[in-house]
Amino acid sequence: MICLKGRKSMSYVQRLGKSLMLPVSVMPIAALLKGIGYWIDPVGWGSNNLISAFLIESGSVIMDNLPLFFAVGIAVGMVKEKDTVLSLCAVVSYLIVAKLLSVETVSLIRHISVEEVSLAFENSANSLVGILVGLIVAFNYKHFSKIQLPMALSFFGGKRFVLIVSTVMMLFLSSVLMVVWPFLYSVSISFGKAISDLGPIGAGLYGFFNRLLVPTGLHHALNSVFWFDSAGINDIGKFWGTISGSVVGKTGMYQAGFFPVMMFGLPAAAIAIYKCARPEKKKQVGAVLLSAAFASFLTGVTEPLEFSFMFVAPILYVIHALMTGIMMFIAAFFQWIAGFGFSAGLIDYILSIRSPYAHNIFMLIPLGIICGIIYYGIFRFMIIRYNLMTPGREIDDTLEEINENESNIILVSDDYDELAIVLLEALGGRGNVMYVDNCITRLRIELKDLDLVNEQQILAIGATGIVKVGKSSIQIIIGTKVGFIADSLNDILM
């Protein structure tokens, strides 16, 4: 029973990850448009150049409405039926929450001026809200789309009722967030101020929590402390000389450490995720991952990559946050300083060289290369060792599709390492095996040469079947213990 619940939870998380990939896939082009536009006009952001204005504003349409895209993508992706009602309901539901949490509406409800409204509501319609809306709409569709009302109200039954109940739930969600969100925002600001006097250690803590809070949108509160005027630090303004009080070697310390991560670390993580994808899915996920990696490197926009794995493999996201904190600390400690106006990508790195407050800026390149190597190694190891369902590794089999005969297989031994050694020999040896993965009952293996496979030897361990897929892939039906054998095989191969 516990195992069944665990599988259902994994399946739910996988569907969430897949649902996010559609809106994520449009983000790299938006990042590139904004980044190139900013490069053309780094001072005016379009006010001094028509082409720059077109590029920046075009990219902003996508990036600024990302929560809405999340709401629609998740609502549609989490439900098997592809119904247009889902999209309409998601759009309406999100717009309700966004409007109710806007500065103007809060001002009206609380009978205060716009200027008195908490700064928290300037970032209240964030990605987390979009994700929550999408999940609620999907839930409502599954449970209320076939409801039957009395004859007098029958027009509002069925799928129309989904919109009604979703609207009511959005009112409740907005009410809760209207109370909770300012508190969480103020806590984040207070925490930022508390660590602002810790020097390089504070920079490291800021980097860690900055990334950790991205899914919630609360990283904006931390940014206001270190980058702007909430605590008088104004790191960005001082680095570019628009605000007085700059100190060479210190000003920019809350920006510099992001460059190794965004230019090298996350792109390397994307390559690791791509390398660990199933062969048949590499083309499918490769375009998204590699374009997102390029966007991160060039412009410093990391959301396309981060949202691709933060929910399906949260341990990787925690590692990413830790690595960001470490890079921030190292850069601040050694006073390797660069700054940005847009984000910590190549464009801003080149532009920041001209700043008089850039200090030992070229040391960030070797630091970034080391950072990339570490990211690649850790991500590849964690994905393979713990069979993390990153993009391209999702289990396609559903619980309903599992044959009873496949789940009741008895192997000749409980020594999974020994079985793995036998299987590896039967598969043509270590040099013939390119990739090992598993679903619930089957080993999925990519080989260089299928002709080297000894089927009788494979069946001798208790496997009940071998399925050849294409010219280089096979599936071995082993049963529910398959995960242990897959781990042993990957341990040997690594």
From TrEMBL:
Location within or outside the cell: Cell membrane
- Where's the PTS EIIB type-1 domain? 417-494
Q: Which UniProt keywords apply?
A: Cell membrane, Kinase, Membrane, Phosphotransferase system, Sugar transport, Transferase, Transmembrane, Transmembrane helix, Transport
Q: Where is the active site?
A: C439
Major site of localization recorded for this protein: membrane
- Quote the cellular component terms of the Gene Ontology held in the record: organelle inner membrane; plasma membrane
Report the EC number(s), separated by commas if there are several. 2.7.1.193
Transmembrane region(s): 20-40, 60-78, 85-103, 123-141, 161-184, 253-273, 307-326, 357-379
Which Gene Ontology molecular-function terms are recorded? kinase activity; N-acetylglucosamine transmembrane transporter activity; protein-N(pi)-phosphohistidine--N-acetyl-D-glucosamine phosphotransferase activity; protein-N(PI)-phosphohistidine-sugar phosphotransferase activity; protein-phosphocysteine-sugar phosphotransferase activity
Q: What is this protein called?
A: N-acetylglucosamine-specific PTS transporter subunit IIBC
Q: State which gene encodes it.
A: nagE
PTS EIIC type-1 domain boundaries: 7-395
User: From its record, what is one biological process in GO terms?
Assistant: phosphoenolpyruvate-dependent sugar phosphotransferase system
For membrane topology, the record states: Multi-pass membrane protein
> From which domain of life does this come?
Bacteria
